[in-house]
Amino acid sequence: MSEQIGDKRKLKDESEFPSVSIGDEGKVIQVLPKRPVIVPTQKPNLHYTPLKTGICYDVRMRYHAKIFTSYFEYIDPHPEDPRRIYRIYKILAENGLINDPSLTGVSDIGDLMLKIPVREATKEEILDVHTEEHMQFLESTEKMTREELLSKTEKGDSVYLNNDSYISARLSCGGAIEACKAVVEGRVKNALAIVRPPGHHAEPQAAGGFCLFSNVSVAAKSILKTYPESVRKILIVDWDIHHGNGTQKAFYEDDNVLYISLHRFELGKFYPGFPEGNYDKVGDGKGKGFNCNITWPVKGVGDVEYIWAFEQIVIPMAREFRPDLVIVSSGFDAAHGDTIGQCHVTPNCYGYMTHMLKSLARGNLCVVLEGGYNLDSISNSALAVAKILIGEPPDEIPESDRDPKPGVLEMINKVIRVQSKYWKCFRRKFGNFGGEYENAIESQIPKMFPLQDAIRNAQLSHYYDDFGMISLSLPNLNLPKNSIICSSNFFKAKSLCVLLHDTPEVWGNRDIITGIIDPSTSIIFDSSLKFINWAIERETAVIDINIPRSAFEADNYSSNLLSQDVMISLWDNHFKYIESLEKLCFIGIGEATSGIVHLLGKRDTRTVTKAAINFVGSSSLKPIVPSLDESLGDWYFKNSLVFTDHFHGCWSENDKKPRKKYGRVLRCDTDGIHNIIEERFEEATDFILDAFDEWSDTEDE
Amino acid sequence: MSEQIGDKRKLKDESEFPSVSIGDEGKVIQVLPKRPVIVPTQKPNLHYTPLKTGICYDVRMRYHAKIFTSYFEYIDPHPEDPRRIYRIYKILAENGLINDPSLTGVSDIGDLMLKIPVREATKEEILDVHTEEHMQFLESTEKMTREELLSKTEKGDSVYLNNDSYISARLSCGGAIEACKAVVEGRVKNALAIVRPPGHHAEPQAAGGFCLFSNVSVAAKSILKTYPESVRKILIVDWDIHHGNGTQKAFYEDDNVLYISLHRFELGKFYPGFPEGNYDKVGDGKGKGFNCNITWPVKGVGDVEYIWAFEQIVIPMAREFRPDLVIVSSGFDAAHGDTIGQCHVTPNCYGYMTHMLKSLARGNLCVVLEGGYNLDSISNSALAVAKILIGEPPDEIPESDRDPKPGVLEMINKVIRVQSKYWKCFRRKFGNFGGEYENAIESQIPKMFPLQDAIRNAQLSHYYDDFGMISLSLPNLNLPKNSIICSSNFFKAKSLCVLLHDTPEVWGNRDIITGIIDPSTSIIFDSSLKFINWAIERETAVIDINIPRSAFEADNYSSNLLSQDVMISLWDNHFKYIESLEKLCFIGIGEATSGIVHLLGKRDTRTVTKAAINFVGSSSLKPIVPSLDESLGDWYFKNSLVFTDHFHGCWSENDKKPRKKYGRVLRCDTDGIHNIIEERFEEATDFILDAFDEWSDTEDE
């Protein structure tokens, strides 16, 4: 980009001229310029011939198949079925992308695609990733008896073997290598390797998950070795629904290969289920930051989630990495219709993701088949990918404007936060602090203090000014100052409203560059105030309890415990000694509701407690555990209202209502504590008035 | 997507079979399945023929040219030069994309592109956008005399005219229509209209900015009218460096056309300079939310900024809009080398943006030339776009990993915030509140209170506990409670440190879905504390002043004024009456530094003031205005240190140091108030000690 700005020299290139018009008085005439000859400096009779898309396919890879031990296996075959590659090849032919009416894998396949001959990967190539023992074991399967094969199949980790497994696996691996080579050498524009058995679960020392050799790893290592100058960095994107543990392992300490996998994880419950598949595994040694796991927390994700992950993580990271070659570990088991993956990625979305990846590495892209078990889904998906590879635009994404599934945005955010230590592109999202922020909080530098303390102090001063409320302390509990604020006359109250809540929400702006929150445009949203106002108006005493959360503690374990201790302590030391008390109601907000449900199960408060209203929002439902009297469960269901967010997890899977032990759970139309309180305030307070038997009184007033 | 999950029926399609191996005891044999005949259900001898890319070009559009009035105009031609379209056509031929050795615009141009014949737009078509008067005026230019033409040229808004202008403009307009038609009718895959004069500045009633008819608007209206069923929504992306005021106006109240423009705005100083080009103009009536201006705050933007804007705004918005056709108003004057646009977009980036747009509307994309005046830049850029259109992958983006220019991220963020009222995709960034948030703050609902008040109260309680500091009030000023906190003995201090700062920063997490800030993981970063500790240790009295900002006020005008009033009032009513006072220093942080500089210019404080340290961070430099004594300027320069962020705007354009009136301005290595204070704390305090003549004393102690 050394072009000089404003250089006018080229404008006067004599072979070019402006078509000018000039006139004398009264008449405008067209005047030919001095040198009218149109002779372009470079004779433009060149032909631009776009490269074809390479394709790898060899019928011999269909020989690896499960040995039948029953007729049932014939009618309900093993999912990693030899027809997988045949069906993909067939759909490409049926749609005219390859010209092979016999479907036998001929050499000349027409104008759009170029056949890349498949060969067996050499032992040397394979041994760059796998151990000698693993190699020898697979070699030995060529000569094994049926019994030996069946016994090895049984002992392995989801792998079957026959006498052709070894040759098929070497062809599959060799196909991946040759496809990548053809791309790197510029013989094809990009490539699709229709190979099996798949590879990404095969670890250096062992087969696993239908995989014998780690095809993509072997190919990547081979390319880095063979073309050390032109290919220094390889990006592997693994969109198989399973984590590619084998590929991850092969490059975990390598900074020349960036491995990004999108897969179901579900706290390690989904195959392969190793902790290595979690999002916090970012590589090691000089490979730190060159491993990225995007872990779906639930099944059923689809186009929206994949596109969001690509836009937010894969593409920015990849562009910063600047790969020389992109290899896709292309399982199609996240596809709609795959009963193993149970997700809903459409063919169009596979195409769209391919389109996005084409923008990297000057288009050097090699798509290698991994899993995917619904023959219709994988062939339609592969067709969509192939169309993009030959240069067609992606088709429309259905439902692209629905919201991502609950939990997915948070997960993406967690991945970004973890990776922001290593990738500049993410710091724009989280400010310049990157990982320093957590350290700062944990080390408790004296010049910092927690926001939640400041908020609670501010609340006290408001409640004191407006309602004369005062601070109450519970000496035996480790509660921050001013956690409990109550009406000064609460000890002689007739009716009492107990408010138990998390630290109030703050709404505000966050600077996109520095990550700093601007206090001047931020507000504290104090949900209690609305209830306190309501109670005070009705001459009901109020006790307002703030349960601070512990920073960075998973599941808020200790703040849940704290809210339980506080409620028990308040009951045992205060409430039950208020002789005047006739009517008690609880209002819980957020995680803190745990304390209310705990108290109602542990103590029999039914003589005075008339109602319990819990706004749980998005936090988990708390079951009552009736430790004294079984009937408490029924009583709780009758006397409670539990409001959840619209998108609370308890509503997601089926139409079943949550069980009675959670109270009378109601689904709000909105999400977020503020919104659901706004939506249900009337309903909640009417319920209390009804329970207090004050409904008609109030109406009459 | 009605495919049934787990439907096994199709797996048993009889034309397919698994290649299975089955064995009897001791031997594994390959057994042919029952029906080995490979007869695909559909005979795969179809040929998939990708459509060509359409191209519009006609030499007659070169007849519109500026009438020469001097030889100077011949050697330095008008930038909207007839050669613009010729050079683009030529480079496509030179690179073999079109086959036309004579460069005359032949009909058969080879395998990759298809010639779309250009015709004159009809009056009816043009009148759907333009007024009858405008039409008649341009028609009349065909018969005007040279003098008339020159006079009209002079009177117009940057438009020249000759006797061929009318026909050229109608061809240009017709070319745009025909290119769009060919795409919509599926005759071509996509299209490039190499047309001139450009169109996007032409408003319904008037020509402007080299534009006569609004080509893209006329084309869009015509398509919507002609194909009401197949094209209901059109996206127009205008990446010309100027705002397309004409196009915006044509569709400002239309929800069928989403107009997104990326352009230099610079507070309206850049052409066309109408306030209509600002980012807050989002459309009107039912068109509200269907107009989006992405306004570069500075010149010199390039690939990184355009890609960021595309990824953050254009693509998400477009995907939610789901257009049936995408038209690009493709000026190439943001290209590197264009002296009018003064920006640095590379050809590869134009290609990349085209690649991204190809993913919309099933690839229905029509690129129509607008501005762009460096003949080399526009031809290279157009070539890169054309290569993407025919299906090639984009080339690499140079420097894609640099940071966006200062101000650009903020600007993008402002656009997103404004548009988040209308587009769901942005709410994921700003929480569910969308525009409700600002309303909530402005209406001051009683259940909310400002975060900055809570923070200041918390500071007071800390300073009181640790240093015995107390609150001081200035009765005549409208300062929030506790804004001024001082050492209790400050009125008999010998040395005094005056700290003046904005509300302290908060660091914290913001929930990606709800936009709520989690107080439990947020901290207040109190920069004052470090200085107070330092001063108290040296038995220097301290006065700490917090200047709250006004929410949502541009340029912090009133908080600047407030900080000035506070300092004058403190000086006039307090400091100058402290008889013991010998040494005074000021430490300013953020916008509040304004008050210090103001005081030092308005009052002669030199008998006691020894040093003024201002950490301005990213806020603007404040010039001293010496109202009493000219020498104050020099004095301020000698006795001050002013620390800026590394990326402060004052350093961006050239190597010149800021002028002396701003004090001794120093550039930090880092950014953000917290970081620059950490970086320069020693330097700042040493400077004060030196000025206080306490350096050696301190050393000796």
TrEMBL record, chains A, B:
It is found in: Nucleus. Keywords: Chromatin regulator, Hydrolase, Nucleus, Repressor, Transcription, Transcription regulation. Residues 78-388 form the Histone deacetylase domain. This is Histone deacetylase. InterPro entries: Arb2-like_domain, HDACs, His_deacetylse_dom, His_deacetylse_dom_sf, Hist_deAcase_II_yeast, Ureohydrolase_dom_sf. Its EC number is 3.5.1.98. The gene is TPHA0C03390. The keyword Hydrolase applies. Belongs to the histone deacetylase family. HD type 2 subfamily. Residues 450-695 form the Arb2-like domain. It comes from the Eukaryota. It is an enzyme of class 3 (hydrolase). GO terms for molecular function: chromatin binding; histone H3K14 deacetylase activity, hydrolytic mechanism; identical protein binding. PANTHER family: HISTONE DEACETYLASE, HISTONE DEACETYLASE HDAC1-RELATED.
